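Working notes for the structural subgroup meeting. M.R. asked for a predicted model of this chain before we commit to crystallization trials. I am recording the input and output together here so anyone reviewing the notebook later can reproduce the run.

Input as submitted:
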Amino acid sequence: MVIGTVARLDNVTAYFGGQRVFANLAWDIYHDARIGLIGPNGAGKSTLLRLLAREHAPNEGSVFITRGVRVGYLPQEPTFDWSRTVLEEARDASPTLAALEREMERLNAQMADPAIYNDARKLQRVLDAHARTVAEFEERGGLNFDNRVRATLRGLGFDEAALGLPLAALSGGQKKLVGLAKWLIEQPELLLLDEPDNHLDLAGKTFLEKLIAEYPGAVVIVSHDRYLLDLVAEEIVELEEGRLTRYPGNYSEYAFEKKRRLLKQQQQFELQQREIARLEFSIRRLMGWNAGQSEKFVRRARSMMKRLEKMDKVDKPRLERKRMGLTLASSRRGSNKALEINALRKSFDGNAVLRGVDLLVWHRERVGLIGPNGAGKTVLFRCILGAETPDAGTIKIGPSTTIAHYAQEHQTLDFDATLGDELRRVRPMVDRELFGWLGRFLFTPEDARKKIGELSGGEKARVQIAKLMLSGANFLLLDEPTNNLDIPSSEVLERALEEYDGTVLVISHDRYFLDNIVDRIVELDDGGLTEYLGNYTYYVEEKARRQRAAASAELSTAETKTRRTPPNEFGG
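Returned structure, recorded in token form:
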């Protein structure tokens, strides 16, 4: 077991495409660290993880990994041999054990060869090699390796049938889980996770939190999930404007401490600026006295100038970073009943996804729709939008209700259109107005000519939100709106939704977002909806209470049945 520092950055500088990403970074990572690495999109977080994983070398400075420390790196988009099955890929988690297994198979084949078993000397050499290989295999935990692989995959939600699926058939979240499973099995001393929670449902995120809390080595996690960072991070490291800043504690503690530091820096800056202004005024006055002819005054002025030059200048803090200028406003008041769904049913290939769903959403409500991946949340949205035809049941949209939709995979965008044309489809605009809108969403006038397909996930998300703003709709259907947003952008969206005077129905696995925005949770599971009249934290507490009550009632029923069972003829 490694104790102390597992990795260190020493004056590390990195460039990307000729642009400097960060410079002179220094960072020590300790053996038991639980670090949340945060920063705006494009700050260089993924670049920093790749340097620690030794996938890239720094342009300047050094990255030190302590002798004996193995580094595991899970990128945002893991790459596999897509023809392999889930079990085959997971069993490859330990290259050493895989190589030993192949060697044992080779030696077993040799022992079955007549040319070997009929030659005592050759057979003995093979038997000795086989014994050594088996001993090493056992020493490295190989005997229970297959059981450990299967148990890990089951813990991540893969049932026995899923183990035989080709990787190409998996969802984005499941592919991420296979990559995670490999590192769980191998358990390197330093685990680097780049947005491992993307595409995970709430159950997957809960498992991830438990994994990080119990992991035997150091963990550095890049995530935009503030709820997850609150639960698992013991230190937040912020990468911003090319510099690393460390904050002890979780995300909420970081947010408070950062604000406190910025306010203190602002006070120090203002005090210093007043002192600089006073000194500069005195210097001008002394140098101007008798046109600078008095040597005494000139000496005093030069002394003050030296004081100014030696002064450690306090940087002016940027209390508010450049963020989206987002105000959501509906064009008109909606109907009292924005949405009414009764006995909705939908099946695919004989498999029921929605089994008699009922839902009533009132004007100005904020409703969070949650549930495991594959439960049918997006199917329900598609039925509401008319993109899917239900097998049975009714969907009524309020007569004064206008809907705008945010799609998780950005299906509302035309990837072949330019950014400018995409916004002009919602509202015709002259260039000046268009450029103003682009600026509010952190785009430049030159970006208007970019094709949507060329944009990053976060940029596509900002385009979708811009379209929502332009639509003037009074009912927003949002499918994972914070998935590709960095934390500052998520906070801007939250503030806008808090002030929005329309109705919101949102699918989200962002628990921090749900806590701040929704006033009702509806959980879709096994084809039906269960309602919880509160935010996400209330949902967790109330669901646990209901489960305890149900378990207690079941136990009470079982005890009652036992008491009522008459004794048998032998008095038993």
